[in-house]
Amino acid sequence: MKEEALLKEPFLVVFKRWITSAGGITILLAIVVAIVAAIDAGPFILVNTVVTGGMWALLSLGLSLVFGVMNIPNFAHGEFFLIGSLTAYFTFNPIRLYLKDNPSPFLSAIAPLLGIFLAFFVGALLGVILEKLVFSPLRKRSRDQWVMNSFLLTVGISVVIINNVQLIWGANFRGVPNYWNVDPLNFFGVNLSVDRLAAFLLAVVTLIIFWYFMRRTQTGRAVRAVAQDETGALLVGINLNSILSLTMALSAGLAAMAGASLLFIFPAYPTAGLKPLYVAWYVVILVGLGNVSAAVVGGFIVALLQTLTSFYVGTGWEDVIPTAVIIIMLIFKPSGLFGSEVKGIQEK
After folding, report:
1. pLDDT exceeds cutoff 50 at 19
2. Which of 50, 24, 25 lies closest to 38, judged by CA?
3. 3-state secondary structure at position 97
């Protein structure tokens, strides 16, 4: 495979190729800019970038995965984020109210994790249901213009979910002030809430597990095989339907987990998934469509852009600068900084 061939090359040759590539130059430039900004404005720049970037990486990973494997530009990805927020709220809030009259240190510690992990499974289940009821029938009946058809389908799913959430629960904001009611921690003179630190650590652990799953397990290799060559994967006996369902489940589950982890920042309401959706697409377009590995790096780059913009320009410009960067990048490098891993988009 491609990875095995790279491992046989001398390290210096691989490093030189990487350091002179657009992606390598961008990473080095981002590190330099982050260090200079931290020296100028304070270490909170680095802390905010790392903490926010971990969650954006988790969110973008799911979007990149479903696009890379299934060629689905999922514009309902933000609604999976919303479903995760709602699941966490309706799981954690009753426990929080119970703990006011019945204090329990152990239950207080694990209650947020219960909501977050349940959100992952609810999101994954919804992803499987949509794959079986919506995308699978479309795949059987129409292969022509697949990307456009699936795009329109996800827009329709987004509208349906948003309107149903508003119909059932109204347009009220549902959030929590914090998950863990403890004093913030101090890192390099920067106060960091335990909620933000926990969200970052959860993102890191999830990314490591995901990397191990994709690289070291037979099922993960099957997912990568389908992404590289669907016909070839069928010829070697891979169950395509199972892999596609698993892919959608992972994508939706990761987005829902991100929404649950950030409930204290993004309260649940019908259109809560719009900004996370935009950010996820910023990342995916910036690094290259379907490039799953690069999506992790892209999450931190976009977080750095947002943090710097918010501090030096203003919070209202937080999404403007990343958009401008993406427009400029697409003019000079349409395939993204790290190159697209989606084959034959135009034909599909």
Report:
1. yes
2. 50
3. helix
